[in-house]
Structure formats: C-alpha cells, structure tokens
Amino acid sequence: MKIGDAIMQTFTNPSIVSAITSTVLIILLGFYLRKKGTFGPDFGKVLTKVVLSVAIAALSFNSFMQPINQKSLHQGLGILVWGFVIYIILIFVAPLLYSRKDMDKREVMGILTTFGSTTFFGIPIVGAIYGTEGVLYSSIFNIGYRIFLYSYAYIKMTGLKMEKENIKKMFLNPIVISTLVGFVLWIAQTAMPQVTVPELKAGVATGATTTVAFYRIDQTALWLWKPLNYLASLASPLAWLAIGCTLGSISLKEAISNKLAWYYSFNKVVLVPLFNLVVLLVLSATHVMPLNYAAIATVVIMMATPTATVAAAYAISYDREAVLTSNSSLISTVSAVVMMPIWIAILSILNSAGIFH
Predict the structure, then answer these.
(1) Which residues pair with 195 in a beta bridge?
(2) 3-352 — its CATH code?
C-alpha cells in the first residue's frame, strides 16, 4: 500500500479518529472547567487518586482475563523483556543528552527523560485505541518500569539506599498487585482446573460453550467481572479530565521561557519514542524479537508520555532542580497532548502501509 493511501485510510478510520478526538477534547474540557472554576484547585489530585488506586488497577487486572495462546504468550514475553532492556539502556544513555550541563542537572534530567507517566497518561490512551490487547501489553511493559522507578530513580534522586517504605510502594501499590496477580493468572491458566461454561463475548452469551480456567471471571463470574469493567472504563475519561485540570492550574509563562524544559520535552515525547519505534522495527524485521503492531504501538505510546509524577515528586521533595522539574513537567505534558495524536496517526499509517509484521 502506498503511503498516501495509508494516510487516507488512517484519517478516515472512525476508531482512530474518535480515539484521538476523545483524548484531546476531554483534556480540553478539564482545562476549561478548571479555568472556569467548576473544578477546584485540588480536584485534579482527587481524580488522579481515583484513577491510580481504582480505575487503572481494575483495567490492568481485567486485561489479563483473556485466552492465552502461543502467539499472545510470545508477544507478552517479548514486551516483558523489552520493558527491562529499554530502561537499562535509557538509564545509561539519557544523561548523555544533557552532557553539557552540570552533574546535578544531568542526573535529574536523565531520570526525567527515562521515566514517563506510563500508568496515568499512557495506559488510558492505549486502552482507548488498542483495547484489551493494548492494556495487556502496557501492563506487562510496566513491570520493569515500576521496579526501576521505585529503586534506581529513588536512589539516584535521594542519594540514599532503598528504604522499607519505598519497597512497600513498589510491591503494595494496587496497580502493581493487580498487574502481577493478573499476569500470573494469565500465564498459568492452561495448567489450572478447567470448567466448561456458556461462552460470553463482552458479557453477552454467544450460544456456544467454552472451556476456561476456573478463575476466568469474564466467563465464569460475570457478576464480578462486570463491576470491575465499569471501574476500568473510568480510567480514560477521568485521567484526561485530570490532565486538563492540572494544566489549567499552572501558569505557562515561566515554563515557556525555559529552553532546557523545551529541549527535555522534545527528547521525552519525540526522541525516546522514535528510538523505541526504530529499534523495535529492526528487531522485529530481523526476527530477533518479532512483535506485532499492537505491541510495538503500545510501547511507543507509553514512551511518548510526559514526566512521571513519581520521578517529579522525588526531584521536588529532595530539592533536586525542583523549579526546572516543575517547568519540564508542564511543558512535556503540553507537548505530549500535542504529539500523542501525531504518534497515533504515524503508527496507524505505518501499519496500513504494511511496515509492521
């Protein structure tokens, strides 16, 4: 397929266009309601807590309630491996992007470039575009992310050794628990006791029967899967409202004048995802790590997210370039809102052109 035809197909695809417009319009709605005063100054924080502690945890767990086969297992394990490899690469490479700055700026900006808001910003967008398959891959990808975020990033930002409290955050976080439990259940389902039940597709009986692991609640316990699904469906709209609300609470003037914040934002939402896209396409084409369109697109979108909230909190709490971090977080969030539809379109065009396998 010619690139021109691929572009036309992408921008006439209702699901792609609606996913892009939904993201942008709901973020703008949150921005408008915050500026108007309908949302108070702390409303964005409340929404964020709901999204992180409830909605995304339910979304992550539910994404593993699907069949496993050789193909999906292979894709999932590839994503898991890349989720560790890319953070190891970025830990060493990202600081080099700021080699002309002093050591403190180099370390802080390197960490902020490495760790994006994959959970809060990335997963809702991935879920809206690629459905349960995308959420499955994004949840697996985030296993490595969270391990490095709560260990390496913490140690570098604080200059301290790992504390008990931070280890608790790493393993007792609702999203981490739901992801790890869901991943284990997904991997082990063929070895578990099986039951034959009426087959359900999106909660609706098909008239056929299916044999699944007893804990596949999407088939065996609709009464439990359905409320979790309702909670999961809150993740995207609430996250986008919170992003808009946050943008509406901050003045752009100081941040706009900071050249380093702009340079960082380019690295974070353009250079890092582009690096992932190119390397993964090469690895897939050479059959070193063959990944499908949904898997590669998920990684690219996850890596095109703005500053991670936790990484920014480390910098601000321990007075490591706090003002620069705040400015960078703001500019990268605005940049990500602008670039995300572009990345989605680019990925779709490449897929329509047959670039992915």
Answers:
(1) 212
(2) 1.20.1530
